Structure formats: C-alpha cells, structure tokens
Amino acid sequence: MSVQNVLNTIKENNIQFVDFRFVDLAGRAHHITLPSTEVEAETFVNGVAFDGSSITGFRGIESSDMVMIPDTETAYIDPFTAHPTLIIMSNIHTPEGERYDRDPRSIAQKAEEYLQTTGIGTTAFFAPESEFFIFDDVRYESGMNKSYFEVDSEEAAWNTGRKEEGGNLGFKVPVKGGYVPVQPVDSQQDIRSEMVKVMQESGLRVERHHHEVSTAGAGEINFRFDTLTKTADNLLKYKYIVHNVANQYGKVATFMPKPLFGDNGSGMHVHMSIFNGDSPLFYEKGAYANLSPLAMHYMGGILHHAPALIALTNPSTNSFKRLVPGYEAPVNLVFSKGNRSAAVRIPIAAVTPKGCRIEFRTPDSTANPYLCFAAMLLAGLDGIKRKIDPVALGYGPFDTNIYHLSDEEKREIRSVPGTLDEALNALEADYEFLTEGDVFTKDFIDNYVAVKRKEAQAVAVRIHPHEYELYFGC
C-alpha cells in the first residue's frame, strides 16, 4: 500500500486517528496516536518522534530521542476503538535517520535481506501456532510479605463441585482432557469464532480454531503462513485481537507459557520453509519425510544452535515451567516425522511439495516474534552453509515416543536448557551465527542478555509460596 493509498483510506473510511506502533525488546507493542488531520505524506518520511529511554532495553535518558518510520504495508483499521482509527506498524530509526540496531522489526527485515545475499533462496516462510488460555478471573500479588496467584475458569476441572454458579451445570474440562471436544464441554466456541471473525475483517487469513489439551480455557487459532516480517506483524495483530475480544466478553486471555501447575501449557510451534522464487527447497520425494538435503541441513542448524536459540524463542523464566517432561512439551533436541515428543517435527499428513516444512515445537509466545523468527532463520542458514548433518550428530530420527524410552536411552539425548540463565549462558557462548550479515549486533546481544538476566534474578530472589510448604516447619 502506497502512502497515497493510506491517505485515501483515511479519507474514504472517515478515519479520525492514526495509531503508529512499534515493538519493544519483549515483543510488546507500544503506540502513539495522531489525529488524522495531522497525518500527511511527510509523516511517512519524517516519522513520529518518541522517548526511547522509557522503553526497557532501548536508550539512556541522555540519548533518548527516537523516530518511528511507518510501514504503510501494515495498515489496518482498529476493530476495537470507539473512534475510527488506523493502525500502522513502524520501524525505529535514530534522529540521524539510521536504522536502529536494537529495533526488533528491523532485525527481522535484515534477516530476510541476508537470506537473499546467501544465494540459498529468496524467501523464508513462517507459520506460528500460538496457543493461549482464556480465564474468567485472574489475581496475583508479589510483595514483601505475600506472594500468590489465582486464576479461575468456568470450565476448569477444579470447579466440578463449585456452588457459586447459581447451579453447577457440569461439563467441565478434565485435566489433559480438553483436546477438541464439542460444546458444551468446549464452552469457548463462540468467543474463538468471534476472534476469528475479527481477525478476518482485519486482514488475517485464518485456517482453523479449536480447544487445546489443557483444562480451564486452553485454545488455539491458526492463521496462514507468510514471509518472516509479515508473519511477525500478523502475530502481533493476532495477539491484539485475542486479548481485546476476550476483554469484550468480560474474560482475560493470556499467552503465558505455563499459567497452571499440573496441566499442559501454551506453546508456539513454528513451521518454516525456504523457497527460491516459486520453487520449494525443502522437498525431495522419497527421502526421509520427503525432506531435501538442504532441509536436513537447515534442521541440523536449528538443533545444533538450539540451546542458544532458546534464549530468544523461550525468553522467560515461566518458559522453563512448560519445558519439563510429561506435558507434551518438546524438551528433547531431536527430530522426527509426525512425532510431537521431538523438538523438531516434520509434518507428513496431507503435505504437498510446496507445503513441505519443518516444525520447531519448543518456542512459546513470550518470544518477540521478530527476534525469534530471525534467529531461527539464521540458525538454519548456518546449518545449510556448514552442511550440519543432524543424523550424523545423533539428533535422530526418533520415530518412537521419546517419553517411553528408558533412562539410559534418554541420557543419550540432548535436552533443552533447564532455566533461563542456562539458555542465556548458551547464547553468550554461541552467538556468532546471529551476527552473520550484521543481522544481530554484539551490542544487541549483550544488551538483550543483560535485560533478561535482570528478569531471571528478579524471580530467583523472591520467596516462592511452595517454600513455606516445604520448609516452614524446619
């Protein structure tokens, strides 16, 4: 969409405000809103100023002036505002006009540009499956003398005996019993359908939605794949719509990886493939899972760099509450066709040459999608350049249920890091593949690690409620 087309959209739809957005280090959107009367062609050249010192991980107060340069291709009408508003994503530049090297969206674009310089292919496609929970109530507090959280859902397994409903109607979702039941067990069919409707009206091509495995409102909506940066843009739009439709229903949605103890969490399985023009590069008929040697090397790069990648794909302390055995979480760094207990799965059902892809199942939605997708692409490209053979390195294939292997057999399988600190250590030890083509800078990585270390420390020093149960009577 050209600048003129955006200006025409503003006029034709009686748009009153234009919402310019950018994304921070954690992947959360921020916005500054201008009356549409103040938006001119020059706005898209000169940009919109903001204070970078107020955004975690950006700039100090002594050099805080930053500029948003809008990307007109991302424009869509906000489905939630009372006054007609147009949303436009932006890249971050310095006041001197240079692309800011800590801007996650610019990093994603640089990864796409780097792919084209390698001669390997022209386009990388990504498709995330971002899961979430919808709760009816959430309460939490972390203070000097108390620490707790409590969530509730009308369909939760713990509410089979609840009397406060005005008559308990049953049909609760059992623990690990929530995968694709029909109504009335699936109490959130209509709210997810409303989310899909709003997504479609906002330009997303949605493929399906369903209830997920966990009790208490676990859900998933899948939108169609696209190129790296566009998919990251779409994921921000997706999360914005899920959060706000839930709010309209008097509920609250969360993409937190592990909001409940004792049941499955929320992952973000990411499907990837590379094309050269219109030609898919991951397909070779008759090979293992119909994967080409190039695809196998790409997968080798993902698995080889996985401990470092996980600092970007699973960047929260809560991520590692999900990455434990027994809850369908992909903790084993191996590959398999169709096997969901492996970190990398190759889908084989109803797959065409153009649909041939690999699925990295470890990530979750606390990841900044621009950084997450860029890092995975760079890891895969490194695997192609170095011809990393995942079979020779012992990464598989493992076509049996890994959770049923003996302890001795499991010891032969490399696992994901056990904590955020371990993942950050791995990133500090293995980051050179990210700096290829100057996609990530060493300054960015050092700054990112410092920010995430503070998060890990903030959790580590706080008293956990379960410690009272374990140790109060010592």
What does this structure look like?
- This is Glutamine synthetase.
- Residues 13-97 form the GS beta-grasp domain.
- GO terms for molecular function: glutamine synthetase activity.
- It catalyses: L-glutamate + NH4(+) + ATP = L-glutamine + ADP + phosphate + H(+).
- There is one protein chain.
- With 474 residues, the chain is an alpha+beta fold.
- The chain folds into 2 domains: 3-100, Glutamine synthetase, N-terminal domain (Ubiquitin-like (UB roll)); 123-471, Glutamine synthetase/guanido kinase, catalytic domain (Creatine Kinase, Chain A, domain 2), CATH 3.30.590.
- It is 31% helix and 22% strand.
- It contains 13 helices and 18 strands.
- The protein has helices spanning 3-12, 43-46, 104-118, 189-201, 228-248, 293-304, 306-313, 319-322, 369-386, 407-410, 420-429, 442-460, 465-471, and strands spanning 17-23, 29-35, 48-51, 65-70, 76-77, 85-93, 123-135, 137-142, 147-152, 206-211, 218-223, 226-227, 252-254, 268-276, 279-280, 332-337, 342-346, 358-360.
- Strands 7, 10, 11, 12, 13, 14, 15, 16, 17 and 18 form a 10-stranded mixed sheet that branches. Strands 1, 2, 3, 4, 5 and 6 form a 6-stranded mixed sheet that branches. A two-stranded antiparallel sheet has the order 8-9.
